């Protein structure tokens, strides 16, 4: 049985949802599931925009059949070759052997690398090429590294629909809803959208900026991404989020305290700092235990807040492993432009402060506050003044 949504009078969502997968890319938890979006245009020619993940292939094929009926499938536009969207290319070819594939030269290269047998049906396109399917004319816009090098987006000049590949995607299954105006996105989806963007595409901010610049020249009426809702209202809201994230600008002035604590003493120091910050008027404070928070959530929150406090024990004369993992992820995702305060703890040879500072120094435009706390095992009344000075220093840096 097919399960589709009508987007316009001749465009259909033919994707599906996966609520069984625990780890997206086998690394990021997705407790709310994920959607794999694919779109089918019924013009003089019929055109499928991307396929879906293997996990929902059968539903996807039923959906295509349900919308096409007895019509053939003429074209398949492959904007992105990552297997969560491209896995079903050969299955589509098996059922519609006359289909032509439209993609970039790099996407064709990836098809061969992944071992797909697509024969001679590929039509290679590049930046600015156009194609008419009848009433609808599209232009292809290259979007390298958003999120792989072969990526393009496709803009329908007839109705202003942008098929945006991974850009403007989110984690989360769709639960029957498809359009952004059918949900409270800011309340229910934004956190997962940020976690998706920052962990999947976050490293490539300049490339996203380049795509946003190209997109600003287009009269976009609707955004059809490969994950999450279709945007048909309030596009500026989400474009603004993408603009901020890809410039590595924080969304909020606030303090995120990330602590690594073995027996609760570094946690207690973090609690003490949080209390002081709030009492001094900075109420936008959040705390995370690095040991029980998946790093994808930490990264997402780090993109959100302006100020970060790293409170970490010394472990084997090094940074505590989960904290090190978080810092390495920050670095590889190109995170920058944050103000950071450091609290170190060590019972006999504290090292974590120096080592965390060294790692932060390797990132771009990080401001590390001079005021540092070094704790010997646990804070005492004697640390009160130092902790107060650290809180003052953070608040001063927010002015
Ligand atoms: Fe959703 Fe880069 O694939």
Automatic annotation (TrEMBL):
InterPro entries hit by this protein: Flavodoxin/NO_synth, Flavoprotein-like_sf, Metallo-B-lactamas, NADH_oxidoreductase_modular, ODP_dom, RibonucZ/Hydroxyglut_hydro, Rubredoxin-O_OxRdtase
Alphabetical keyword list: Electron transport, Transport
Domain of life: Bacteria
Keyword Electron transport assigned: yes
Gene3D superfamilies in alphabetical order: 3.40.50.360, Ribonuclease Z/Hydroxyacylglutathione hydrolase-like (3.60.15.10)
Molecular function terms, GO-annotated: electron transfer activity; FMN binding; metal ion binding; oxidoreductase activity, acting on NAD(P)H
Family from the record: In the N-terminal section; belongs to the zinc metallo-hydrolase group 3 family.
Name the record gives this protein: FprA family A-type flavoprotein
